[in-house]
Design brief:
- It is a single chain.
- By secondary structure, the chain is α+β, with helices and mostly antiparallel strands.
- The protein folds into 2 domains: 95 residues, Immunoglobulin-like (Sandwich); 174 residues, Serine Threonine Protein Phosphatase 5, Tetratricopeptide repeat (Alpha Horseshoe).
- It has a 4-stranded antiparallel β-sheet, with no helix packed on it.
- Strand 6 and strand 7 form a beta hairpin.
- Helix 8 runs parallel beside helix 10.
- The two termini are 44 Å apart.
- One of its GO terms (cellular component) is nucleus.
Length: 281
C-alpha cells in the first residue's frame, strides 16, 4: 500500500521535478534524486542509462539518492531514468559531461592524418590525451585500429597507451575491435604487448564472440588460437557457438567452434542449448 501511495505521488511530482546534476567532469556525472521521491524509510531506487545500443542498462540499485556515473565521454549528453525499485514508473531525464578543456580533437586529427610526429608532440605535452575518448567514444588507440594504421598503433604503444583500456559504456577493448574488424596483424601486436585475450565487455562477450559477430572464419580461428575461453558465456548465457546459431553464421564457423571444443550442451539463461537455437526461425 505504501509503495502504491509513493508511486501515485511520484506521478504528480514527475510533471515538474527532475533529478539534479550536482557535479560533472569530463568523464563523470553526479546525480541526485532526493527531492523527486516522497520520503520513505525503506525506499530503494534503480538508476539506468541508455547505452549506445539504445538499451537501458542498470547502473545502480539501492537506498542512496546520489550516484556518480563514471567512464563517460567528454562533452556528451546521456539519457537516464530512475524509479523506485520494483516499480515501472520511470522518470526519464538527461545530463551531460563537461567539455574537454584540452580538446582531444587535435589528437584525433593527427591520427586521421597519420601524423605520428604531431601525435608524439601532443602526447608529450598532455599524456592524458592518450586515453581520452573523443565525441565518438573512441580513444586514440581505437581510432588508429579503425583506420587499420599499424604504424600508428605501434607509435601509441611506444608512447605508453594502455592496450587493455576498456572503451566507454560498452566496455570493449582494442583487441575486441581489431578482431571484429579482421585487422589481425594489429590484434597479434596487441596480444604480444599484453592485451588480455579473456577480457569481456559489458555484456560478457569475449574476443571469440566478436570474431563470430564478424562472420569471418579466419577471425574465429585467430581468436581461438589466441587462447581465449571458447565456452565463455555472455550475460544471456550465450557461448560463441550459440551466438553463431543466433546470427546464422556460416557452417564453417559452426564446425571450427565445435572442432575446437565448443560445448553443444551448454544452455543459455533461456534454457536452450545450441541445437535448440538452430531450430529457431
Amino acid at each position: 500500500m505504501a509503495s502504491l501511495q509513493i508511486s501515485r505521488a511520484l506521478e504528480i511530482q514527475n510533471k515538474t521535478l527532475k533529478p539534479q546534476t550536482i557535479a560533472r567532469t569530463r568523464n563523470e556525472i553526479s546525480l541526485n534524486w532526493e527531492k523527486i521521491f516522497p520520503k520513505h524509510n525503506n525506499a530503494e531506487y534503480t538508476l539506468q542509462i541508455l547505452d549506445e545500443f539504445k538499451e537501458w542498462k542498470k547502473i545502480y540499485s539501492g537506498p542512496q539518492t546520489t550516484f556518480k556515473v563514471t567512464n563517460l565521454a567528454p562533452c556528451s549528453v546521456y539519457s537516464f531514468r530512475v524509479s523506485l525499485k520494483d516499480t515501472s514508473n520511470w522518470l526519464e531525464f538527461k545530463s551531460a559531461t563537461s567539455e574537454d578543456l584540452e580538446n582531444s580533437s587535435h589528437m584525433a586529427r593527427a591520427i586521421k592524418m597519420k601524423n605520428t610526429n604531431t601525435v608524439k608532440k601532443i602526447a608529450q605535452n598532455n599524456p592524458r590525451l592518450l586515453e581520452t575518448e573523443n565525441k565518438e567514444l573512441r580513444t586514440p588507440l581505437v581510432q588508429a585500429i579503425d583506420n587499420n594504421d599499424f604504424q600508428m598503433v605501434q607509435c601509441l604503444h611506444n608512447l605508453g597507451v594502455n592496450v587493455n583500456n576498456h572503451i566507454s559504456l560498452a566496455q570493449r577493448t582494442p583487441l575486441m575491435i581489431s578482431v571484429y574488424l579482421g585487422y589481425l596483424d594489429i590484434a597479434q601486436f596487441l596480444i604480444s604487448k599484453g592485451a588480455n585475450v579473456n577480457d569481456v565487455d559489458i555484456n560478457g562477450s569475449n574476443i571469440i564472440h566478436y570474431a563470430v559477430d564478424s562472420n569471418n572464419k579466419i577471425n574465429v580461428e585467430f581468436a581461438i588460437k589466441s587462447g581465449a575461453h571458447i565456452n565463455c558465456q555472455t550475460s544471456k548465457g550465450w557461448t560463441p557457438l550459440i551466438r553463431a546459431a543466433n546470427l546464422k553464421c556460416s557452417s564453417d564457423i559452426h564446425k571450427i567452434l565445435m572442432d575446437n571444443g565448443c560445448d553443444t550442451t551448454i544452455k543459455s539463461k533461456s534454457g536452450m542449448d545450441y541445437k535448440k537455437y538452430l531450430t529457431l526461425g
